[in-house]
Design brief:
The complex is a heterodimer of chains A (about 240) and B (about 300). Chain A is mainly alpha-helical. Chain A is built from 10 helices and 3 strands; from the N terminus they run H-H-E-E-H-H-H-E-H-H-H-H-H. Chain A has a 3-stranded antiparallel β-sheet with strand order 1-2-3. In chain A, a hairpin with a 2-residue loop joins strand 1 and strand 2. In chain A, helix 6 packs parallel to helix 10. With about 300 residues, chain B is an alpha+beta fold. The radius of gyration of chain B is 20 Å and the shape is globular. The termini of chain B are far apart. The chains are: A mainly alpha (about 240), B alpha+beta (about 300). The interface between A and B is large, with 61 and 61 residues.
Chain lengths: ~240, ~300
């Protein structure tokens, strides 16, 4: 039997209306570095991906497509500026924690891109009225060549790695396992996996520089890379 | 571009992507990349390869690069706009760091309760047969930045509080060598204090009495309750965050080893710090355990 009580049950929610934990929202509004980092980590990839893939918009009676940043450096600049604006004290104070945060960030990123609309029309192709699907997303011949070159370079790099390193990368990036899962499967510490991953990144960077990667045409950052890893996985098999 | 300048650029891009540039170096690189399309193309190519490696539209490495730009040296809590660490604000940042160091120094050397003379303190820390000319102490207290920090000793620090450090070097240590400080918990989680991936570099040591480090750490951030092993080392040349990560991994993997030897010796030749200390004369180490305790409501 439940004891009767004269008080109404006191219901508290562990999360703010936008889905964040209350301490995160409070920390965000107070500008605490830990909270801001958590918000960045939660949203940066989606914003960066949108800036990479592009989006469509209407202007001057036409439908345009922003084809996405081919330059990683430019993408990083806009991603950085998006969060600088979003994290400014006034912007944080205005955020009520009721509306979802992702669309707010997307709007800032979009406005930053559109600000460059007039000066950078090469990034904004006009879509035919009867062709809603973007024809501009297909890789150019130049991009296709660059794609092949980067595939070959990374394939050569991977082929030269020791089998345990190949296995670590396969589990992490082909199978998409977390560092913790990879550590468990390979009998390593999570920190060891993290460190080895960093070392392999550094090795790849040095490999590119040693191979004089300047031979690659300078549009690699815009390559469509979705199918690449399966190709490499096939090569391994 | 000459081959030498090309190699310099490649090396700088590598350090940027691995999180090893200070905010100032980072700002200089970005200015260069903006003004030099071939250099920018080299940066883009390197990032493209990382995307291929990770099989993602945007590599995790890129997000880390932007995070470092976003958080290094910025005071987001201020009422005005955040402080930028770019070249224009460089002197303001220096002044702020010096001011912070002064404040922490005042907090550590509180009146009427001076820290012990360094010789006694080193002996106490290192036992009867000190093996190191370096000693460190953790100081903790409430979150209020105006409150006094006390040496943690064997007591636990409150999980909601603030942490800082002090160090002293004996005559055996050459003043001006660089102090590296980091923490590892029982699960291998690493916290960087100096250097940090955000651009804080190793600390240039000063001889004499106990010195406070210009570091004030909010324990609710990245410090889970429990035991943390704090490691310090002085080296003649700078140590990078990647070197720290490497050492932390080796220490975690080798945790059961005896603590009778210095922690760099326990690395058993693994990693840059171990190699550095195997060959350098003025490499001295210290380590302490710090307990962080969750307060009961």
């Amino acid at each position: 039997m439940t004891a009767a009580t004269s008080e109404a049950p006191h219901i508290t929610s562990e999360r703010a209306p936008n889905g964040w934990a209350w301490p995160l929202l409070r920390g965000f509004r107070a500008g605490e570095a830990g909270a801001l980092r958590e918000v960045y980590q939660g949203h940066a990839e989606a914003i960066a991906t949108a800036l990479r893939r592009g989006f469509t918009f209407s202007a001057g009676g036409h439908t345009h497509r922003f084809v996405g940043y081919a330059s990683a450096f430019e993408l990083h600049d806009v991603l950085h500026e998006t969060f600088v604006r979003a994290f400014a004290p006034a912007a944080r104070a205005r955020y009520d924690g009721i509306r979802p945060y992702a669309p707010y960030l997307q709007a800032i990123a979009r406005n930053l891109v559109l600000r460059a609309f007039r000066s950078r029309e090469v990034l904004f192709s006009v879509l035919p009225e009867d062709h809603p699907a973007s024809v501009s997303d297909a890789p150019t011949p130049e991009q296709t060549v660059a794609d092949q070159q980067v595939r070959e370079l990374v394939r050569t790099f991977l082929a030269g790695l020791a089998p345990p390193d190949q296995e670590l990368l396969r589990r992490r990036f082909t199978l998409g396992h977390s560092q913790r899962d990879v550590a468990e499967a390979l009998g390593l510490g999570r920190q060891q996996v993290r460190t080895r991953e960093d070392q392999l990144r550094r090795q790849l960077i040095r490999f590119l520089h040693q191979r004089g990667a300047s031979a690659i045409v300078p549009t690699l950052a815009g390559l469509p890379l979705g199918a690449f890893w399966s190709l490499v996985a096939e090569a391994w098999r | 571009m000459t081959p030498r300048r090309r190699r310099q650029l490649d090396r700088t891009i590598e350090r940027e992507l691995m999180g090893e540039l200070s905010p100032r170096q980072q700002a200089r690189l970005h200015a260069h990349l903006r003004a030099d399309p071939p250099a920018r193309a080299a940066y883009d190519r390197t990032v493209a390869a990382l995307r291929v490696l990770e099989d993602r539209d945007v590599a995790a490495t890129e997000l880390d690069v932007v995070a470092r730009r976003l958080f290094a040296g910025r005071a987001w809590q201020s009422a005005g706009e955040p402080v930028d660490t770019g070249p224009r604000a460089w002197w303001a940042v220096v002044v702020a760091i010096v001011a912070m160091a002064a404040v922490v120094a005042i907090v550590v050397a509180w009146p009427g309760q001076d820290l012990p003379p360094r010789a006694e303190y080193i002996a106490a820390r290192s036992g009867s047969a000190p093996t190191s000319g370096l000693a460190i102490d953790a100081l903790c207290g409430p979150a209020d930045p105006h409150s006094i920090l006390h040496p943690a000793g064997s007591a636990a620090c409150p999980a909601s509080g603030r942490l800082s450090f002090a160090y002293t070097i004996s005559e055996a240590v050459r003043a001006g060598s660089l102090l590296t400080l980091f923490a590892v918990d029982d699960h291998g989680q690493v916290n960087f204090y100096a250097p940090t991936p955000d651009g804080i570099t190793s600390v240039v040591t000063v001889a004499g009495r106990w010195q406070a480090l210009p570091i004030s750490i909010a324990l609710p951030v990245n410090h889970t309750p429990g035991r943390w092993h704090i490691y310090a080392v002085t080296t003649p040349v700078p140590v990078t965050p990647a070197d720290v990560t490497e050492a932390a991994a080796a220490l975690t993997a080798n945790r059961e080893a005896t603590t009778a030897t210095s922690w760099t010796e326990r690395l058993a030749g693994q990693g840059h710090i171990s190699h550095l200390c195997a060959t350098a004369n003025n490499c001295h180490t210290a380590e302490i355990d710090l307990w962080i305790e969750e307060e009961t409501p």
